[in-house]
Amino acid sequence: MRREDIKHIIEAVMFAYAEPISIKELNDIINEELASKEIEYMLNNLINEYKENNRGIQIIKLQDKYQMCTNKDYSSFIKKVLEPKKKKSLTQTTLETLTIIAYKQPITRIDIDEIRGVKSESAIARLIERGLIKDIGRLEVPGRPILYGTTDEFLRQFGLKTIKELPSLDLYSDEETQSSIDLLNKAIEDMEPEVDDFENNDNENNIEEDVAEEMNEAAIDEDK
Question: In the structure, what pLDDT confidence band is assigned to residue 91 with cuts at 50, 70 and 90?
């Protein structure tokens, strides 16, 4: 099979699959016993082709996987198509929980609660529903609590290739920082997602949802 044909197959598979895919998975699909470096070379060719021509689609790298997505330069046009299906933006409470998990992962719910000073069950449930965090194991202590971490979807939505690209917390540490949550709240401001799901165009609804979340967590506390 010609190398150009293989490159076209990679392009077609990534378009159809839509999810992040590894070089090994692509190699298994192509079934030509190619070296990983050859697949990586073709992927880089595609990435450069899209960038040089400012194409409407692009390929991004998420840790050890690659994903085809739309060019953010054309997001305003895509928004017109997707607006009816647009998800509600994250509330401040949920975004705060997400930031704690992103910086402190792997982390248990109890540790999240201690940092925030309130229960976080509702916020965690929302983040799991959005596909931004997941159960990544159990802490080997009595009760074996669940450990939470971020997902590839989190990286994609925040424009990161790896979790190491998060802004360093050292940038936010100063004499005004009174606690861990103060530090993380400062970092939240720089965590600008690249997709529309989190656009905060409905502040009143977000405030109402924040209050509802806090009341729900308070009810959970009373029940316990």
Answer: confident
